[in-house]
Structure formats: C-alpha cells, structure tokens
Amino acid sequence: MDRIGKYEIRPFSKSRRNIILILKEGWHRHSAHGIIEIDVTKARKLIKDLKNEGKDISFTGFIIKCIAQALSEHKELNALRHGKKKMVIFDDVDVAIPVERSTDSEIRPMVYILRKANEKNFLEITKEIRSVQSEKVDESSQLLGKSLTRLERFALNSPFFVKRFLLWISRRNAILKKKYMGTIGVTSIGMKGRFPGWVVPLGGTTTILFVLGSIVKKPGVVENNIKVRDYLNLTVSVDHDIVDGGPFARFIDRLIELIERGYGLQ
Predict the structure, then answer these.
(1) Which residue in 99, 121, 125, 220 is deepest, having the highest Cβ count within 10 Å?
(2) SS3 of residue 113 by DSSP
(3) CA-CA distances (angstroms) from residue 10 to 3, 15, 100, 105?
(4) How confident is the model at residue 108 (pLDDT cuts 50, 70, 90)?
(5) What is the distance between the alpha carbons of residues 200 and 187, in angstroms, rounded to a whole number?
(6) From CA 143, how far away is CA 95, in angstroms rounded?
(7) Distance between CA 162 and CA 166 in Å, rounded?
(8) Sign of dihedral through CA atoms 19, 24, 28, 33?
(9) CB burial readout 171-195, b (16+ within 10 A) else e
(10) How many other β-carbons are positioned within 10 Å of the β-carbon of residue 91?
(11) d(CA 253, CA 193)
C-alpha cells in the first residue's frame, strides 16, 4: 500500500525567504491588537453612487484616506523609534501596502509606499494603486518596483546576512525606516476572497499595521431600530512602546467616525 501518494516538490524561493526576514522584524515590537467592527453601509453606498457616475474608486483607497486623515490629526501615532532614547514624529503619512504580482509563475507581494497619503484624496490614492498594480516588474524589481536606487538593488541582491544587517540598521534609524518601509502599513485580506473574520498579524515593521478583513452583513441598531448593515472587520496592531491606550482609543474613535460618515465621498 502506498502510504505517501502523489506529491510535488517546489523550491522555497528567495522571495519567501525575504518575507521571513521582514516578518522577523515584527517580533521586536511589543504589539497590542485591536479587533474592531465598523459600519461601512453609508460609505459603500456613496462609493457605488460615485462609480455609477464613472469614477473609479477603490474601497481600500477610501479606507487608506480615512486612516491617513485620522493620523494627521493624531500625529503622535505617526511615529517611529530612533535609537534607544528618541522617536521621530512625522507630518507625512507614508502607507506601505502589499501588491500581488506574478513573476516566474509565482505570486509574490510587492511592497509599495503611498507617499503623503494625508495630502491626497481617495481618487488620487485609487489611481496610484491602479498604476502600481499594472506596472511591469521582473525578478530584480518585484519587491520595490521599477524605480530602484543602487542601494536598493544592492540590498535585494545581497546575501541574507547582509540583509539582516541592513534591517538591524533601519530598525534603529527612523529616517531610513520611513524611507524604505513607510510610517504605517495597510493590508487587505478581504480583497482576495471571502474571509468572514479577523486576522491578528505578527506585528509588522511599522508602528501601526491595519489588516482589512471581509465585509459582512449583520443586524445593527440605527436610531433605535434594528436594520441589516454592512460591517468591515478590521484588526489594528500597534507598537505599545510608542502608543499608550488613551491616545490609541482616541485615534480609533476618530477613525471610526471618518469611515462611518463616508469622509470625503460626499
């Protein structure tokens, strides 16, 4: 009796090993996680109305705009550690997002950073996301896109012990970390298929990481009446070394307010 059955051996690619290096960076954070439901019924209706007018709007782009706006009002969360005794608070909200690309028959995430998202509207953010999704890349550029500096090309093609050293340097230098990793991270699991729940991340490389899950219909109370509403499952992972409970709660309260009233869509 064959106790093994058919199987296929595939290489554990360099891309996957690069991802492991980045994931290990998240272990250096003392992460706290918030699991949140947000009523997006009104926002989805406004987006649908705008799409009927011929405007290309990404729901993820809208959420990114709301996050960037809330962070611009609570700048103490848009910060990174700098050495042991300092941290840097940034005006620009640079959002790191993963964009899936296909290279050599393998689907890989490409890290792209939306610069100054707090200064852009949701249409500009959507256009930028669409542009990077259609960008042609190859093995040498799939992680960071086509416009690579010599240092970036060196980092991508260097041995893994060199990559670990470079990550160690960026972990202690807020300016370098912002340049190459952004100030916050946003990833959307719900865009890839049905995922009716939350994902708790390992921590991420930024002070705050947002994980968008699926949108589910469930009853909610509206003006003392029970109605079917659309709820977004959202997980927020925050570095507790930088952010305490009070500022985090006030930031989340503002973020929920912006999303539920459809900030910028009307």
Answers:
(1) 125
(2) strand
(3) 20, 13, 20, 12
(4) low
(5) 12
(6) 15
(7) 6
(8) positive
(9) bebbeebbebbbbbbbbbbbeeeeb
(10) 11
(11) 28
In terms of Cα–Cα distance, which of 183, 186, 180, 129 is closest to 153? 180
Residue where the block lists tokens 């946003």: 186
Give residue 134's pLDDT band: very low, low, confident or very high (50, 70, 90). Answer: confident
Q: What is the pLDDT of residue 200?
A: 76
Q: Which residues contact 118 (CB under 8 A, 6 or more apart)?
A: 68, 69, 71, 72, 92, 93
Count of residues making up the chain: 266
Pick the more confident residue, 14 or 260. 260
Token duo for residue 42: 């009104």
pLDDT tens-digit series, residues 57-100: 889 999 999 999 999 999 999 998 888 889 999 999 999 998 87
With 70 as the cut, is the pLDDT of residue 254 above it?
yes
- Contact of 220 with 50, CB cutoff 8 Å: no
Question: Which parts of the chain fold into alpha helices (H)?
Answer: 14-25, 41-52, 59-73, 122-133, 150-157, 160-171, 174-181, 245-260
Cα–Cα–Cα angle for 246, 114, 61, rounded to 5 degrees: 75
Rounded to an integer, what distance in angstroms lies between the CA atom of residue 55 and that of residue 9?
45
